[in-house]
Amino acid sequence: MLNTLSGRFLILTVIFVMLAEILIFVPSVARYREDYLLSRLERAQIASLALLADDMIDAELETELLANAGVYNVVLRRDEIRQLMLSSPIPKPIYATFDMREAPAFELIRDAMMQLFDNEDRVIRVIGAPVREAGLLIEVTMDTMDLRASMLDYGVRILILSAVISVVTAFLLFLAVRAILVRPIKGVVGYMQSYAAAPEDGRRIIQPTSSVVELREAEEALQSLQTELTASLRQKERLAQLGGAVAKVSHDLRNILTSAQLFTDRIEMSEDPLVTRLAPKLVNSITRAVNLCESTLAFGKAEEPPPSLTRVPLADIVSDVIESERLAVGDFDLSFAENIPAGLNVRADPEQLYRVISNLVRNARQAIVTSGKPGEISVSCQEDDDMWYIHVDDTGPGLPPKAQEHLFTPFQGGIRKGGSGLGLAISAELIRGHGGRVTLERTGEGGTCFEICLPKGDVAQV
């Protein structure tokens, strides 16, 4: 019970109501003491009227009047004359004098609290203004035991009433909290548990129904989260199915390309000059296609294989990429530029680096050709003490904002219409395997620039 929201709310409500009642209790007791003393003054004034009516009263009647008023003596000041109206022996010296005429609230509260906690029987003098302007002032002496007993009785009744009010209030609030908060929260928890059991089932997504604004916002946020998660799980399922299909196709394609590779080995032995010049490029292309199929099969099983790092001449890789792209361009007005320092060797897997640069250059070439305007693609490289920086620049139309949002996300970062969006995702994964990164440096109407960062050391510098 104490560990539940409603149980703790119940306890806190009782505590807070009791604190509020205590804050009310103090001035209430002070007010009660003031009324008690004023009533004693009024009763004493009424008793003194008997003496005003008859100047001589016997001692027995005087004692009875004082007993009924609850005082020891009565002094009335009339016409600037202080007159002892009724009197009887005072058993003790007067302890304190309290003037009830225009007494400040703080003073009344202080005197009431002192009186409440003082258990000694004392005699006090009380001064007040007579009612109905029957004089200038009235003064009585009285003991404090009856006053304190009456104040305690009043205080106990106030505390009991406060306790009853706090318990009833807390119980009503407990029921209200259970109906307004706890029950809807349990409903949300139930939806979460039901959804967790089968997140692919769209029927288990929560439907916001709460009329409380905060709970409604929580339900809508949960609905959005569950919808996105269900869509993501479905996409991953489709990707898994697609991966299985690609693995099967790659397996058969690898066998076909292996047969083609055997034929190219014989073509290399031809003495025709044109065949002699083109055969090595054909062999390299088929070899890369075979490696790509094998890598795809490995990816379908787990992920891209770890790179086989070695020192490779970057200029040769870039030259092969650009030669292949020149053949794809045909007669379109597109130029290529290479700015690779002579003799620069980078530490990378040559096949994986070729795929990354080829992906970036191919994307740039397709963007420029699609725009229908002449353009240029350049590949350059700089280095510092820790990293190699390879830049692929183009003068194309730039990337659309939607493509920039999911640039390296599979099946979402496609740049051209009909593209799968795998190229950049695979490129980023391959470079991460080298301990580096692929980033978009800039894009816009002036063109696009991608940067490949490769660390020189054994530890990734990203």
Explain what the structure shows:
- The chain is of the alpha+beta class and 462 residues long.
- It contains ten helices and twelve strands.
- The protein starts with a helix and ends in a 7-residue tail after the last strand.
- The model has no long low-confidence stretch (mean pLDDT 80).
Principal-axes geometry comes out as rod-shaped
Task: Report the radius of gyration as a whole number of Å.
Answer: 49 Å
Counting structural domains, the number is 3
String of helices and strands:
HHEEEHEEHHHEHEEHEEHHEE
Number of helices: 10
- The portion of residues forming beta strands comes to 15-25%
End-to-end distance: 52 Å
Q: Which structural class do the helices and strands define?
A: alpha+beta
Biggest sheet character:
5 strands, mixed
Q: Give the strand line-up of the largest sheet.
A: 2-1-5-4-3
Beta-strand segment tally: 12
What's the mean pLDDT score?
80
**Level of helix content?**
55-70%
Provide the low-confidence segments as ranges. Answer: none
Keywords: ATP-binding, Cell membrane, Coiled coil, Kinase, Membrane, Nucleotide-binding, Phosphoprotein, Transferase, Transmembrane, Transmembrane helix
Subcellular location: Cell membrane
GO cellular component, one term: plasma membrane
GO molecular function, one term: phosphorelay sensor kinase activity
Descriptive terms for the model:
462 residues; alpha+beta; Heat Shock Protein 90; 3 domains; 5-stranded mixed β-sheet; 10 helices; 12 strands; 17% strand
Layout of helices and strands, plus pairs?
Layout (H helix, E strand, L loop, with lengths): L4 H49 L5 H11 L3 E6 L2 E6 L7 E6 L5 H12 L6 E6 L8 E7 L1 H53 L15 H55 L5 H29 L8 E4 H16 L4 E6 L5 E4 L1 H22 L3 E9 L3 E8 L6 H5 L16 H12 L3 E8 L2 E9 L7
Helix pairs in contact: 1-2, 1-3, 1-4, 4-5, 5-6, 7-8, 8-10
